[in-house]
Amino acid sequence: MMLKKLFLLLLVIVHFSENSLADDRKAYQVGDTIMEFKLKNIDGKFKALNDYKSEKGIILIFTCNHCPFSVAYEDRIIALHKKYSGLGFPVVAINPNDDKAYPLDSYENMIERAQEKGFTFDYLHDETQEVAKTFGATNTPHVFIVSNQQSHFKVEYIGAIDDNSYEPQSVKHRHVENAVDQLVKKIPITVTKTKALGCSIKWKK
Amino acid sequence: MKIKQSILLLLVSILTIFLFTHASLKKEVQVVKMPWLDSILSIQNDTTYVLNFWATWCIPCVAELPVFEKANQKTNREATKVILINLDYVKDQQKVLIPFLEKKRIKTSVVLLNEPDANRWINLVDSSWSGALPATLIFNHKTSYRTFIEKELNFELLDTLLKNSHINK
After folding, report:
1. CA-to-CA distance for B50 and B166, rounded, in angstroms?
2. Contact residues on chain B for A160, CB-CB shorter than 8 A
3. Which residues of B touch A158 (CB under 8 A)?
4. What is the pLDDT of residue A2?
């Protein structure tokens, strides 16, 4: 009898912990206003959201060095910045990974990778992971396009860069390009949310 | 003469053992598309399915593979079916995936899901899935059990989830 009660109790405990597995972290949704942030860039200087107030918006990309999906997208991220920075939508990359879990994602290695690949965009280090947590970034690469509303920046698109991480030549839908093109033309964005496979962001313990 | 024969016999035995062990280690991987995923997800029976989404380059995924191997060995095949759904690039199948599975001696069934536009199928697996790897879906249609986990699992937790999946609600 005692054992049966204990078993039931255990079941209840397990049931509760199972429910908590569905992580209900608050994440930005399309339409939300994003918070101020200040992160260290690869040039050693700090960049705040306010530093982009002269831009029409930002293509914010949570990415990193070690993840094969991020690496597969490096050239496409460089191309996005080249195409859209002149139109007022620069790329700002943010690396949120714990470099104890992934030494390749350390600040020093970010500088090295940026030099190797010739990144012309800002590549910021989210050392405390606060920015990634506030955005609700989950994997790399994970894009948030924000538009400048003068008093604040508003989330316009969340998701993938395009529909084929493996083969750039097989891409059919360029989600980020389509969204920014529509923002530039000031017409409603047709696809505001997509999902893609990626490396889960390694949170600090 | 006798020595020669013995040596020959020994060589033949070694060769046979070598061929046998290699043949049994040779891993076959079926390449599947979305209809396969659809059919697994809508299967109506009393088996608990464990679908683990992983890739060879995903460090936490590789770290948790032994958990699924152990579950696959320990559980009754009819009651529980573990399937490792690999998401490597299909072109790397022979070069990367097969040697990896052979080296790690993976005995659990593995399929390679070749659907690069994950946006089309991530929500089929679970609407809460961000797309981050590893991720695991455990379900049993008979008991209406369904749990989705977007992180690494340990054996104790998986074992408990499997036990719960067989309990009628």
Report:
1. 12
2. 118-119, 131
3. none
4. 56
Domain ranges, residue A88? 29-198
Task: Please tell me the total count of domains within chain A.
Answer: 1
Inter-chain CB proximity B59 and A102 less than 8 Å:
yes
Q: Are strands A153-159 and A142-148 parallel, antiparallel or unpaired?
A: antiparallel
Which candidate in A200, A201, A202 is best for mutational testing of the B interface (most B CBs within 10 A)? A200
B68: domain range? Answer: 28-165
Taking residue A188's Cβ as centre, other Cβ atoms within 10 Å add up to 9
Per-residue pLDDT of chain B (169 residues; tens, 9 = 90+): 567 788 777 777 776 665 555 555 567 899 999 999 999 999 999 999 999 999 999 999 999 999 999 999 998 878 999 999 999 999 999 999 999 999 999 999 999 999 999 999 999 999 999 999 999 999 999 999 999 999 899 999 999 999 999 998 7
**Contact call for residues A179 and A189 (beta carbons, < 8 A):** yes
B130/A139 Cβ within 8 A: yes
In a domain? residue A52: yes
Residue in chain B nearest A195 by alpha carbon: B119
In a domain, B1, yes or no: no
Q: Is residue A12 a part of any domain in this protein?
A: no
Does residue A1 fall inside a structural domain? no
Q: What is the pLDDT of residues A148-195, one digit of tens each?
A: 999 999 999 999 999 999 899 999 999 999 999 999 999 999 999 999
Whether complex ipTM tops 0.95: no
Q: Is A102 in the B-facing interface, judged by CB distances under 8 Å?
A: yes
CA A58 – CA B165 distance, rounded (Å): 45
**Calpha distance B100→B88 (Å, rounded):** 11
